[in-house]
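Let's practice the habit of predicting before peeking. Look at the sequence and jot down your guess about where helices and strands might fall. Then scroll down.
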Amino acid sequence: MSTSLQLAQARYLHLAAQGLLQAPTRAAKPTDIAACIQRMALLQIDTIHVVSRSPYLVLHSRLGDYPREWLEEALASGQIFETWAHEACFAPMDDLRLHRAYNRLTRRHWGLAKADKTHVAQRPHLDKLLEHIRTHGPVKSSDFERPAGKGGAWWGWKDEKRWLEALFGLGELMIGRRENFHRVYDLSERVAPQLLQPAPEWTPAELDTALTEKAIAALGITQARWVHDYFRTKPRLKDSDLDTLVEQGRVMRVEVQGWDAPGYVHASHAALLKKAIAGRLEATHTTLLSPFDPVVWDRERASVFFDFDYRLECYTPEEKRVYGYFVLPILCRGELIGRLDAKAHRAEGVFEVRALHVQPGTVWTAAQVADVAQALQRSADWHGTPQVRITRTQPAKVAAALRRALKEAVAS
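Done guessing? Here is the structure:
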């Protein structure tokens, strides 16, 4: 291998591909939502909202301030769609056929497996629900709720929700829009009329290759063993599995100093790779990341890139948590330098940092404290909770430094 990068250069290339290397240089526009998701190839959906829900946080990390309703508008206007990928995700509408084909032929996500079981066991109910939607229009699961103990013409809520999700997993329904983040289901051909046209005929191998290339491009640079997790494809890849793509010039194999395995860069990032090798990528962005951000959701990858061991603890019993319920990694100029457990008290206008932990073995510089304070204030303002309250930090002395820097950030 003739191409060699230092670890920091590889990290910057990864962040550049993800849109996290440099701070936004202009105010966000509505079209940036779909463009950002196109760049990442997917945007994971999660409903936890102690702060803003994860998809909004991921976009804010990259775009800065923007109205949250822009995400719903991008969905309703057909720029993006919802699908099962590694988990429930938004994806670019250009990839609709690809995801549907992969989910039909290859993927065995639990959501799709449940849909198949429901199809076999309760197809008449699915058909009746489909006919209702065809006749009366889009529905939410809440449309079929009824008071406890009361009878009704429709089945119980749990059945209807399960049937709607089954029809979504089977591809017969799509999510046409969201209302207060609740899914609105409609016939797939009404949401995406292009589905009425003949579909490309892909083999399973061609689908695997297409998603492999998309994952490598989205990650900027990756080891072979990390590729499968981006879309949760199977099996985990070995270096030899990428030989053909390398030989065809679609993927470049590079050496990263300190790695015991080669790295891979998609050909679409050739210019970015040259900048990285020349040391011309500069990290300037400081922001708070979602726990479901593509940069951190693969624990091994985050550890190798950033020496940052991250595990989501919201599903861990409270007494066993180390860092907190919904912990946001702190990205500061190309490094993950800490994490914080936050809660937005919207009624009081307070953004509470319940606990902040500096990365073990490191000491923040004054510049890093200032950068983090500004990122905190930006996030707090965007949440509509402009008063930042620092409850606890580790080390404890960081709290006073952050409070001082926050006052300066507000004054400026």
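How did you do? The chain has 15 helices and 14 strands.
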